[in-house]
Predict the 3D structure of the following.
Amino acid sequence: MAEVVHRLGGLQAQEPRPPYLGIWARLEGFARDDLHAALHARTLVRATMWRATLHLVTAADFAAFRPVLRPVLAPPRPPTCRPGPAWVASGPS
């Protein structure tokens, strides 16, 4: 399973079913339990990757790509609130 997912460059996995269907459509003789076993063995991982969405990738690809994607996936965020006028900060009179 890891070789198949690696060759595909990962599979979109926002929902649990699409990776199973994607591999089934591409691999003759695909058995659902093979993918299930690879997930449990952690040779495949479901993680936030490209476009900040969940993808199924190999553990090795995750280790290679995730550090490169980190700056794009977690950009610095502006403060959630701006300082208000001075009378707001001073409290009740």
Observations:
- The beta strands are 11-12, 44-48, 54-58.
